[in-house]
């Protein structure tokens, strides 16, 4: 059964329809990449799933229950998290404090610097576990804003994991990274998404083919093909519509 379903999803901005009838079924635990040319509507699709945009028509279901129209925080509480929105980080707080805030939020505690009585130890242990998970233990006391670029991405990943999401959305996680940073982040994403469903938009096809169980190809607001990496690579229509083009156009 699908953990995430998109049914007849449409989104218009003014007179222009950007998402033009998308159906997509994401089984629990599957890593799915969404590829397509710049402007195809990939980020818009993510906004519709995460609750940052409301569809013009169609449905988004998480575990068979509709989530379209719900605010992002409520969708997050139901188990879907979107990462790599740099603004989530408080640059003047330490790495540890940032993760602890995410942990507190996942427990329904307020953003506050008051000590949550009786829960300090549990919160610290959970925070330490997440630090380890993304290999930031050595950087725990550094200011988040002073981390390297890939360090900040690791921190965001830890903050995303705080809510223990069953579905994770990543929009161009490798954008702007060096080869070394990409390799590090790729390994990390593979590790932390194990057993979770992933929806990934990424222009780096090496990353896509390394990470995705299956790939959906979005062209001009419609899914034109879905298949394994091997199937997608061999699909003549896909090659013509997309894979023949350069993929380095960025966000
Ligand atoms: P992708 O992520 O695949 O590159 P986007 O989803 O960012 O594509 O954008 C798809 C199209 O929708 C683009 O033509 C973009 O200009 C347009 N678009 C995105 N957001 C808005 C908006 N808020 N208002 C009007 N047009 C938008
Ligand atoms: Mg985009
Ligand atoms: Mg783009």
From TrEMBL:
One Gene Ontology cellular component term attached to this UniProt record is: plasma membrane
- Entry-linked CDD domains: ABC_Mj1267_LivG_branched
Keyword Cell membrane included in the entry's annotation = yes
Its domain of life? Bacteria
Q: Which GO terms describe its molecular function?
A: ATP binding; ATP hydrolysis activity
For this UniProt record, give its keywords in alphabetical order, as a comma-separated list: ATP-binding, Cell membrane, Membrane, Nucleotide-binding, Transport
Is the keyword Membrane in the record? Answer: yes
Ranges where the ABC transporter domain occurs: 4-245
One Pfam family here? BCA_ABC_TP_C
Looking at the UniProt entry, the stretches that span the membrane are none
What is the recorded name of this protein? ABC transporter ATP-binding protein
């Amino acid at each position: 059964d699908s953990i995430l379903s998109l049914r007849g999803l449409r989104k218009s901005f003014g007179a222009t329809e950007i998402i033009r009838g998308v159906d997509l079924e994401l089984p629990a635990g599957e890593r799915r990449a969404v590829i397509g040319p710049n402007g195809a509507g990939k980020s818009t699709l993510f906004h519709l799933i995460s609750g940052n945009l409301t569809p013009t028509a169609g449905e988004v279901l998480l575990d068979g229950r509709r989530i379209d129209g719900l605010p992002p925080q409520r969708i997050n509480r139901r188990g879907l998290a979107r990462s790599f929105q740099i603004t989530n980080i408080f640059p003047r707080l330490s790495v540890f404090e940032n993760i602890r805030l995410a942990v507190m939020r996942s427990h329904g505690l307020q953003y506050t610097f008051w000590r949550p009585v009786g829960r300090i130890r549990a919160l610290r242990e959970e925070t330490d576990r997440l630090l380890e998970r993304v290999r930031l233990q050595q950087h725990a006391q550094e200011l988040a804003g002073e981390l390297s670029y890939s360090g900040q991405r690791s921190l965001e990943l830890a903050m995303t994991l705080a809510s223990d999401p069953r579905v994770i959305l990543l929009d161009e996680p490798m954008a702007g990274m060096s080869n070394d940073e990409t390799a590090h982040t790729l390994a990390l994403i593979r590790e932390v998404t194990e057993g979770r469903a992933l929806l990934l938009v990424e222009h780096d096809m090496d990353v896509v083919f390394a990470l995705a169980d299956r790939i959906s190809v979005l062209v001009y607001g419609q899914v034109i093909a879905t298949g394994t990496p091997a199937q997608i690579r061999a699909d003549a229509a896909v090659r013509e519509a997309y894979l023949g083009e350069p993929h380095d156009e960025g966000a």
